[in-house]
Design a protein that fits this description.
It is a single chain. The protein is an alpha/beta fold. It has twelve helices and ten strands. Strand 1, helix 2 and strand 2 form a beta-alpha-beta unit. The longest helix is centred in the N-terminal third of the chain and has 16 residues.
Length: 317
């Protein structure tokens, strides 16, 4: 569901979505190549960017919509690409605001960072941002790696947390991208933090980053557990169960607006904070289902409907 090096440290993301919807992922064009000037010194002019996968574009459209409602002159430059492209674009003024994910942003800015819990990641980010980037408040919504099982498996083994799987290690077949076997927050992390021992013969490499092939393998029983992102519509659609991660093996990944420091203002951040406060994981799953599910609602339309439903279509006092 996401782009390599964009969302997690190890999961090949958005590839499945892009393969199915190339146009939604940018179609190979560079939105910055002919973008012209930045927004200049006008505090009410702002350029919103997005990465090149549908969830990012949907959230960016939410930012754009609520800012317009509150009197900002908004331009959009979507489908920019990976973090390696869009963070420099914020720094050089090509864009002013873009949604990101707290844990992966921290890892990008500081490759030595070891924080994984929400509080620790949030505490580490300000020092990593430098002088040219600031953040608005993170949303409750979190799109992070998870260990997911079927409802039948959860009920049969009385599973709530990842650690509850440990006594059944010999019976667990695990589906995930091949690199999950070696990455610190993959099988090594599950072994160290939860005593979950998945033997090499019980690991099933699936290269779609929690996409349709992974979902089918879990639903059909070919694997017992799988690495799927928490905002995947497949979780609700298949009544899957996300196992809790109390030891924070997987880094926190709250949706957060990244802002060019020179463009930041109290008004801008207060508007973005109001939108983020309403954006829960459940709301983000619903938005993803509209955009990437059978309805195929355009991200801009889904965002506009969501803003109205949340009562954000009137200026914030």
């Amino acid at each position: 569901m996401r782009v390599p090096q964009l969302r997690t440290g190890f999961v090949v993301a958005v590839a499945a979505t892009c393969a199915l919807a190339l146009a939604a992922c940018g179609g190979g064009s560079d939105p910055l190549s002919a973008s012209g000037e930045g927004s200049g010194d006008d505090p009410n002019a702002v350029i919103i960017g997005s990465a090149n996968f549908p969830e990012s574009e949907t959230v960016a459209n939410i930012y754009a919509e609520v800012l317009r409602v509150n009197g900002f002159d908004v331009e959009t430059r979507f489908n920019i690409g990976s973090r390696e492209a869009y963070i420099p674009a914020v720094r050089d003024g090509s864009i002013d605001v873009i949604p990101d994910y707290t844990g992966n942003l921290l890892q990008y800015l500081d490759s030595d960072a070891v924080a994984t819990s929400s509080d620790d990641v949030d505490a580490a980010l300000p020092a990593a941002l430098g002088d040219d980037l600031v953040l608005a408040a993170p949303a409750p919504a979190e799109d992070k790696d998870a260990v997911v099982v079927t409802r039948e498996t959860a009920d049969r083994w009385n599973l709530t947390t990842i650690g509850d799987l440990a006594p059944y290690s010999a019976e667990v077949t695990f589906g995930a991208p091949a690199e999950f076997q070696e990455r610190p927050v993959g099988l090594p992390g599950l072994r160290a933090r939860y005593a979950l021992e998945v033997s090499p013969g019980n690991f099933v490499p699936i290269g779609d980053g929690g996409g349709p092939a992974t979902v089918e393998a879990l639903a059909s029983g070919r694997v017992t557990a799988a690495n799927i992102f928490t905002t995947s519509p497949s979780i609700v659609a298949n009544d899957f169960v996300v196992l809790e991660d109390p030891e924070n093996n997987f880094p926190a990944q709250h949706v957060v607006p990244v802002i060019r420091a020179a463009k930041s203002s109290d008004k801008l951040t207060s508007v973005l904070d109001a939108a983020s406060a309403k954006l829960t994981t459940e709301e983000l799953i619903a938005l993803n289902t509209e955009v990437s599910g059978d309805a195929k609602v355009e991200p801009a339309a889904a965002a506009q409907q969501w803003v109205a439903a949340q009562g954000l279509d009137e200026p914030i006092s």
